[in-house]
Amino acid sequence: MGRPSWDEYFMKIAHLVAKRSTCLRRQVGAIVVRDKRILATGYNGAPTGLPHCVDIGCLRDEMGINSGERHELCRGLHAEQNVIIQAAYHGVSIKGATLYCTNRPCSICAKMLINAGICEIVYEEGYADPMGEEMLAAAGVRVRRVGGKE
What is the pTM assigned to this prediction? Predict the structure, then answer.
């Protein structure tokens, strides 16, 4: 086995971060990188101190909500939201950085990533929210898919 490319390396780390997820539907991991250095990590799950979906069940499943719809009806935060929050909490600027994420960001996360100054997003799996893609393109954020499937 050869040495992994930087994309492979950081995506494998994003997958490891995703293993901390407490979501019953989808485990997502995100890392923010600048100059080949990891600045922050995040995974999807309930806010600190609140019960996790793996322990009390999924509100979205209970309500019959499809993936990519009604994002506000969820106890958890998305991995991209958590990576931005972790960077801010620890006083780390992510302006001009690259986000590696196991999934393409939804429209809510896309808006947050644009305003946080992320300049590139590398993802592996698709996500049913074309509005996020449109906003990232309009904002000039470079988006690349590596491996995975749409």
Answer: 0.92
Q: What is the pLDDT along the chain (150 residues), one digit of tens a residue?
A: 789 999 999 999 999 999 999 988 889 999 999 999 999 999 999 999 998 888 888 888 888 888 777 877 788 899 999 999 999 999 999 999 999 999 999 999 999 999 999 999 999 998 778 899 999 999 999 999 998 665
The four Cα atoms 65, 66, 70, 76 give a dihedral, to 10 degrees, of 80
Tell me which of 8, 69, 80, 133 is the catalytic residue: 80
**Residues near 123 by Cβ (< 8 Å), separated by ≥ 6?**
100, 101, 102, 103, 104, 105, 143, 144, 145, 146, 148
Annotated active-site residue 80? The verdict is yes
